Amino acid sequence: MNLKALAKKLQLSQTTVSRALNGYPEVSEATRRRVEEAAREHNYRPNSRAKGLATGRAMVIGHVIPASTQHEMVNPVFGDFVAGASRAYATFGYDMMFTRVDDGDEEQVYHALVAKGSVDGVILQGPRVNDARIPLLNRIGLPFIVHGRSSGIEESYDWVDVNNKRSFQRATKFLIDLGHRRIALINGLEQMDFAHRRREGYVEALKSAGIEPNPALMRSAEMTEVYGHHETRAMLKMEDPPTAILAASMISAIGVRRAIDEAGLTLARDVSVITHDDDLSYLRNGSDVPIFTATRSSVQHAGEILSRMLIEKIEQPDAPNQNHMLEAELVVGRSTGPAPETRR
Amino acid sequence: MNLKALAKKLQLSQTTVSRALNGYPEVSEATRRRVEEAAREHNYRPNSRAKGLATGRAMVIGHVIPASTQHEMVNPVFGDFVAGASRAYATFGYDMMFTRVDDGDEEQVYHALVAKGSVDGVILQGPRVNDARIPLLNRIGLPFIVHGRSSGIEESYDWVDVNNKRSFQRATKFLIDLGHRRIALINGLEQMDFAHRRREGYVEALKSAGIEPNPALMRSAEMTEVYGHHETRAMLKMEDPPTAILAASMISAIGVRRAIDEAGLTLARDVSVITHDDDLSYLRNGSDVPIFTATRSSVQHAGEILSRMLIEKIEQPDAPNQNHMLEAELVVGRSTGPAPETRR
DNA sequence: CTCATCTCTCAAAGCGCTTTGGTAATTATT
DNA sequence: AATAATTACCAAAGCGCTTTGAGAGATGAG
What we know:
Two copies of one chain form a homodimer. Chain A is an alpha/beta fold. The first copy, chain A, contains 13 helices and twelve strands. In chain A, 43% of the residues lie in helices and 16% in strands. In chain A, strand 6 (183-187), helix 9 (193-208) and strand 7 form a beta-alpha-beta unit. Strand 2 (95-101) of chain A pairs antiparallel with strand 2 of chain B, so a sheet runs across the interface. Chain B binds a DNA duplex through residues 2-4, 12-16, 18-19, 22, 26-28, 31, 46-56, 117.
C-alpha cells in the first residue's frame, strides 16, 4: 500500500493525502479524518526511503563504533548508554543505526555516512585524548555530540561529560582521609579521555596531600574483570602493597575483589576499594547498602541527555554549541575503611 | 556530489556511470577506470536512500529490542552478540538498525518496519516460550532468523540456538556425580525459551538420579548480579541449604559468589557453583584456569552465524529454513568440588 | 558489399514520497 | 454586484538512483 494507491482509493490526489497525513492546515477536517481512517485501515506507512529522498532527512541517528582496539560494543556500558539514547530516539521518531568501523577507517566511514546520506547526525562515543574525529566532523559539517570530551582539542563542539577529574579527586581524597597512603589506580586505557582525566584527579589529590604518585601503583588497560583481577593480584604481591585501590568500572572492581579474596584478605578491612559505577542495570552496586564505595553517574541518563541534544542540534544546526557537565556522586559502601596501619 | 553531477563532469550519461560503478559488463574497461577514478577523487558515494528506492533493497538489518520488561539492550550479552553480528554485516555491506519497542507494540513495529521498507530482514532476539513474533513474521513475510528457539511453536523457521537443555543436564549430572543432592537453579526469566529449556535439562538430570526436584531451590528472574546475590543469600539461610548452585549467567554467578563469601563460606569447598558462560569479552571466565566451572558457548560467535544466515536468507528468500544447533562445552573451573557431606 | 552481431553508450521511465505553483469554488469586503 | 480573500484541492516537478529499451558504431560472416 503506497501513497498513490491510497489516494486512488480515496479519490483524492497524492498531494492532499500527503498533506492530510502530515498535518498541513490546508486540508479540511472532514477530509483529514477520512484519510487518516483509510491509512489506518490499510496499514499505510510512508516508505521511509522515499520520504527521506524527498525531505532530505533520514530520521536516523548514527553510532559509529570502533571494532578492534576499543571494543566499545562489548563493553557493558554500551548497552546501558544505548538504552538511554534509544528512549529519546523513540520519542522523537528517530531510528538508530550502528556502523562498525575498523581502526583507521574512521575518516572514510564518516565521509561515507554523510555522502550516502544515511544519517542526520552521529554520536561520538569513547573520545580519546586529542581525538581527530572532532575536527573531522566539524569540517564535514555532520551534526554530532560527543559523549565525553577530548583533552587537547581547542575548537568548540557539543558534549556531555561526567566530571571525571573531580570525582576521582574526591574519591582519592576520601581514601587519604581514611589514612591510606599507598593508593593504586586501576584505570581504563589512558588514551581514552575519561581515563586521562581520572588520573589527573587522582594525581592531584595525592599531591595536595603531599604523597608522591607511584607509577608502580598506576595501571591502565581495557576495563575487564580479568584485568582488574590480574593487576590487583600483581600489586598485592609487591613488597609494599597498596592498602586502597581505585577501579575504573564495576567490572574491573569485581576482578579486584576476586583478587583480594583469593589473597586471603578482606575487603575494606585489609584493602579498601572505590570504583566508578556507571549504574548499569545488570551490575547494580548492590541493593540497599552499596557493595562498593563508588563515584556514581548513570550512563543511561547520559545517553538520554546526549540524544536529546543531538536531535535538537539536527533540528537547529546553527544553534551555539552546548556543553553539559554531570557531577558524579560519591556513595559510601562497604568496600572502604581506615588504612590498616592506622589501626595497629 | 551526486550521480548527475559526476556524469556531467565525465561527459557520460548517468546510466553509464551507474553501470561502471556497479560492475556491469557492458562498460568498456577504459571507461570504467575513468569513472572509478573520478568517483574516488570527488568522494562520490551513491545516496543510500535513492539507491534503496530504486532497488527496493535497504541494505539494512533490523534488531527490534523490547524496552521495558526484558531489557535486552542492557544485558551485557547484547553487546557481544551485536559485535559478532556486526562483523558479518560489515563484510557484506549491511548496516544495522535498532528499533526500541515498548511491550505490546511489537506487532505494530514489525508491520511498520516492513511497510516503511527500512530493513531487509530482522534478527529475533530473546524468543520466549510460544513466541507470537514467529508466526507474525512468517505471516508478514519479512526474512528473519531467531536467536534461540520457541517451545510450542510448530511452524518452521530459521534459528541458531545453543543446546541449553543438554548443557544444563550435563552440568547438573556433573554436580550429582560429585555427590551433590541439594542443587539449586538460579535461572533466567522462565518465559524466556532458553531458561525454560535449561530448567528441563536440570529437572531431567535430577530425576534420572532419583532426586525429586525441589521448587524452593528453583528461582527465576532477570539475570542481574543483585538477583544472583539475593537468591543465593536467601537459600543459604534455609534449613537445608543447597550444596551446589547452577547459575544462568556469569553476572548472576558473580552475585552468587558474593553471597557465598558474605556467608563466610568457601566456593567449591562449601558450595559448588556452575554457571553458563556466554564468553563475554568484558567478563571472561578467568584467564588460565576458569573461575567457574561452566557451560560455555560464545554468544559473539552465535551472532556471527546468525547474521550470515540472515544475509543468505535475504538474498535467497525461498531457500528452505536452516537450523543450527550449537553445543556448549563443559569447562571445569575452581568453583566445584565434592559435596560437603561426602567428606564428613 | 550487405546483413548480422557485438560492443558501448544513452534517453527516459520509474521507485514513493514532498512541495511548488497553481485553479476552482466559496466566503468576505467594498 | 463586482472584487478580493480564503478555502480546499490538484497536476506536475523533483529528490538521486537503477533499469529498460534502443541506437550508433565497429566488427565479422557470407
